[in-house]
Specification:
Length: 654
C-alpha cells in the first residue's frame, strides 16, 4: 500500500473512533458534530466585532499555532484549531460575500476535514463549503489543491472565494490552460491552488518526467547549460502532494478515471505516411459485417474476423516499409472501422477550422489539446478528410486512481456519490458521508415520457417547452450530444422560438448564457456542459412561474448524469421540475438493449405516457452500463498494478 494511503487511513480511523459509526455504505453525520457547530458559531460571532487588521492577526496567530503544532490538523486531537479556522473562514465569507454558512455547510466542513467524501445535494452550496477544509489545511503551508471537473468551474470557484482567502492572508492561484511552466509554478507556490482535476494530474506527470530526466543527467550539467545560456527543459512545478479537495468528486474520481492520463511527447520516430491511413480507410469501407468484422456497439469495440484478417493482410501496402515497425496493418484497418462505425461527428468529436477536436463524453467540453492514441486520432482524421497529424510517442502515463494515492489526504464533495460509494472506497479509500439539505427540496420529478421515434420525441419536447415558456417558466433542455443540441436548436429556430445554445461550439460566452438561463421564459439548449456544477439563478418572475424546468432529451449513460442535470433546478429550496424524454431510437437504448427498444416501440403512446415497467427497465439499463464501466476501471487498475510491479522488478534488477 502507498504510504500516503496509510496516513489517510489513520485520519479516517480517528474520525471513525470519534463518530463511532461503522464506515460502510453512506453514513449520516454524527450528532456530536452539532456541538462543534455551536462552538464555531459562537466564535464566529465574537470575530464579527473585530476590525480588519484584528481579524487578520487572529488568522496569523492560528497559522503560527498550527505550523508549530506540526503534523497538520487532526480532527480529534486539534479540534480547537478546527473550530477557530472554521470561525475565521465563516467571518471572512460573511465580509467578502455577505453569505453566512448554514449549519449543514459547517457540517460538511467537519466531514471534509476528516478526509472523506461529503454527499451534499446539488445546489446546496458546495463551492463555499470547500473553503472550510481548504483554509484549515492551508495553514499548514504545504499547499492545498482544489480540483473540479473543468476549467470553467474551477475559475468560477477561484474567483468566488479569492476575496475570502485574501481576507485571511492566504495566497491562491488558478491553473489556467496554456499557462507557462513559470505561471504554473507560481500558482503551485500559493497556499491554495485551483484547477481542473486533469491539470493537476498532467503537471504531476510532466514533473515526474523532468525529475527522471534530471536524475540521468551528468553532474553539473544544469549549471553548465545555464552558463552557456541554454534554456532548460520542463522544471518541476508542483511542490508536494499534500491535500486534495475534489469537487464533483464522482466526475473527477470515477467517470474521468475510466481512462488514464497519457502525456504525449514528440512525433514518433518512424512515422506512418498519411496515405496509409487513407488506404486503411478504403480497405475498411470495402469490408462487410459479419463476414469480415464484428461490431460490438455496447462495448465500443470492433474486431476483424479470421476471414477479414486474411483479406486485409493480403492487401498490405508494400510501399510502407516503416509500417511494420510501428503499427500492424490489421490494427490500422480496425481503427478505420472504429472511426467509421463508433465515432460520430458532433458526438465524440467536432471538426473546426480543419482540426479534429475531442469532446469529453462526461463533461460535454471540447478539448483541442487532446488526441486519441494508437493511431485512432489519425483514423478519424482520415475519415473526415482532414490533414493527418503525426502520431505522438507516449511520454508518461498514470491512472487517476494511482495519482490520487500520492496525496497525503484527499476529501471530496458531490451531489451524486450514492451508488458509487463502493468504488470510492475500493480505489481511493474514501468513505461517503451524507449531509442533510438546508431546506427541504421543492423540486418535482415528472414521469418519464417514452416515444416510438426520435421525431415524435422532439415534437413533444418542443411542445412542452413552448407551453412552459409561455407561462413564464425558464426551460433548460439537456442533450447528450452536440449533434442533438444542434438538431433541437434547428427545430426551435424553424418555429421562431428564441433560445440560447450552450454546447461548446457556440460563440457566445458560457457565463453569459448561464446568467440568462434563469430569467423567466428563457429557453436554453445545452449539452452536459451545463449538466454539472452550473448555478442557474432565478429571477422573481421565474420563481413565481414554477422555477426552472429541466428536460433531458435522451437516455444518459448513468443515473448520476440525470440527477446532476435535474439538480440545475430546485436549488436552495427554489421551486423547479425535471422530466426525462426517451425514444426507441435513442442510440444508447439501441446499442445496449434491443429488446427494450422493441418494448418502447410496442407500448408507445402518442402522449409519451410511459409504463412503470419501462421506466424501471431504463433505470436498470443505466445500471448495466455503469457496472460495465466499473469493471473496465477495475481491470485498468489491475493492469496498472501489474505494470508497476513489472517496472519495479526490472528497476531492482538493473
Ligand atoms: N450560505 C449561503 N447563503 C446564501 N446563499 C448561498 C449559501 N451557500 C450557497 N449559496 C448559493 O447557493 C447557490 C448554489 O451554490 P453552489 O453552486 O455552490 O451549489 P453546489 O452545491 O455546488 O451545486 P452543484 O451540485 O450543482 O455543483 C449559489 O448561488 C450560491 O451563491
Amino acid at each position: 500500500m502507498h504510504p500516503s494511503m496509510l496516513s489517510r487511513r489513520s485520519t479516517i480511523a480517528s474520525y471513525r473512533s470519534f463518530i463511532g459509526s461503522p464506515l460502510r455504505g453512506v453514513q449520516s453525520v454524527h450528532p456530536m458534530t452539532l456541538r462543534w457547530i455551536n462552538d464555531v458559531r459562537r466564535r464566529a460571532e465574537s470575530l464579527s466585532t473585530l476590525g480588519e487588521a484584528e481579524l487578520r492577526s487572529a488568522a496569523d496567530a492560528l497559522r503560527h499555532r498550527m505550523r508549530s503544532a506540526g503534523s497538520g490538523p487532526h480532527i480529534t486531537s486539534q479540534l480547537d484549531h478546527v473550530i477557530e479556522s472554521f470561525a475565521l473562514t465563516g467571518e471572512a465569507l460573511r465580509r467578502a460575500t455577505g453569505m453566512n454558512y448554514y449549519d449543514v455547510q459547517w457540517m460538511g466542513g467537519f466531514v471534509l476535514a476528516a478526509g472523506v467524501v461529503a454527499e451534499i445535494q446539488t445546489g446546496e452550496g458546495k463551492t463555499v463549503t470547500t473553503a472550510l477544509p481548504s483554509v484549515l489545511h492551508a495553514w499548514g503551508g504545504r499547499g492545498v489543491h482544489i480540483a473540479t471537473t473543468n476549467e470553467y468551474l474551477s475559475r468560477r470557484d477561484y474567483e468566488t472565494l479569492l476575496p475570502v482567502y485574501q481576507t485571511l492572508g492566504l495566497s491562491v492561484g488558478h491553473l489556467e490552460s496554456g499557462a507557462s511552466p513559470e505561471e504554473k509554478r507560481m500558482a503551485y507556490a500559493c497556499d491554495l491552488t485551483y484547477g481542473p482535476g486533469y491539470e493537476f494530474g498532467f503537471d504531476f506527470l510532466r514533473d515526474q518526467l523532468a525529475i527522471r530526466a534530471d536524475a540521468h543527467r551528468p553532474l553539473g550539467d544544469r549549471y553548465l547549460r545555464q552558463l552557456q545560456g541554454i534554456a532548460d527543459g520542463h522544471q518541476v512545478c508542483q511542490r508536494e502532494l499534500s491535500m486534495a479537495i475534489v469537487d464533483e468528486a464522482d466526475s473527477v474520481l470515477i467517470d474521468e478515471a475510466t481512462i488514464p492520463l497519457v502525456l504525449g511527447g514528440g512525433p514518433r520516430e518512424t512515422p506512418v505516411s498519411p496515405s496509409t491511413y487513407h488506404r486503411a480507410r478504403d480497405m475498411a469501407k470495402s469490408l462487410r459485417e459479419p463476414e469480415d468484422f464484428l461490431l460490438d456497439a455496447s462495448n465500443r469495440r470492433v474486431a476483424l474476423t479470421p476471414g477479414g484478417r486474411q483479406r486485409v493482410s493480403a492487401q498490405l501496402p508494400t510501399s510502407e516499409t516503416s509500417l511494420l515497425l510501428t503499427r500492424p496493418w490489421t490494427q490500422m484497418v480496425e481503427n478505420a472501422l472504429a472511426a467509421e462505425h463508433l465515432f460520430s461527428r458532433d458526438t465524440e468529436y467536432v471538426v473546426s477550422d480543419g482540426k479534429l477536436m475531442i469532446v469529453d463524453p462526461h463533461t460535454g467540453r471540447i478539448h483541442p489539446e487532446r488526441t486519441w492514441s494508437r493511431g485512432m486520432h489519425q483514423a478519424v482524421e482520415a475519415k473526415e478528410q482532414l490533414d493527418i497529424t503525426a502520431e505522438n510517442e507516449t511520454q508518461g502515463r498514470v491512472t487517476r486512481q494511482r495519482f490520487m494515492q500520492c496525496y497525503d489526504r484527499v476529501a471530496g464533495l458531490t451531489g451524486t456519490a450514492a451508488g458509487s460509494e463502493g468504488e470510492l472506497r475500493e480505489f481511493y479509500d474514501l468513505p461517503v458521508v451524507r449531509i442533510p439539505t438546508h431546506r427541504p427540496s421543492a423540486g418535482r420529478h415528472l414521469p418519464t415520457r417514452a416515444f416510438a421515434s426520435r421525431e415524435e420525441k422532439f415534437r413533444a419536447v418542443i411542445e412542452d417547452t413552448v407551453g412552459r415558456a409561455r407561462a413564464g417558466q425558464p426551460v433548460l433542455i439537456g442533450t447528450r450530444t452536440i449533434a442533438e443540441s444542434r438538431r433541437l436548436s434547428e427545430r426551435f429556430s424553424a418555429q421562431g422560438i428564441t433560445h440560447a445554445v450552450l454546447n461548446g461550439v457556440q460563440t457566445e460566452q458560457e457565463a453569459k448564457i448561464v446568467a440568462r438561463a434563469g430569467i423567466a421564459a428563457t429557453v436554453t439548449v445545452a449539452t452536459n456542459m451545463a449538466g454539472r456544477g452550473t448555478d442557474i439563478r432565478l429571477d422573481d418572475a421565474a420563481r413565481r412561474a414554477g422555477g426552472l424546468h429541466v428536460a433531458s432529451t435522451e437516455l444518459q449513460p448513468s443515473a448520476r448524469v440525470d440527477r446532476q442535470l435535474a439538480g440545475r433546478s430546485a436549488r436552495q429550496g427554489d421551486p423547479g421540475s425535471y422530466q426525462r424524454f426517451v425514444s426507441a431510437e435513442d442510440p444508447l437504448i439501441q446499442a445496449h438493449d434491443a429488446d427494450l427498444a422493441a418494448r418502447i416501440l410496442a407500448a408507445a403512446d402518442p402522449s409519451g405516457e410511459c409504463r412503470q415497467r419501462i421506466a424501471d427497465r431504463l433505470d436498470a439499463l443505466q445500471q448495466t452500463i455503469d457496472s460495465k464501466l466499473v469493471e473496465q476501471r477495475r481491470q485498468m487498475v489491475a493492469h496498472d498494478d501489474w505494470l508497476v510491479s513489472v517496472q519495479s522488478a526490472l528497476a531492482r534488477r538493473a
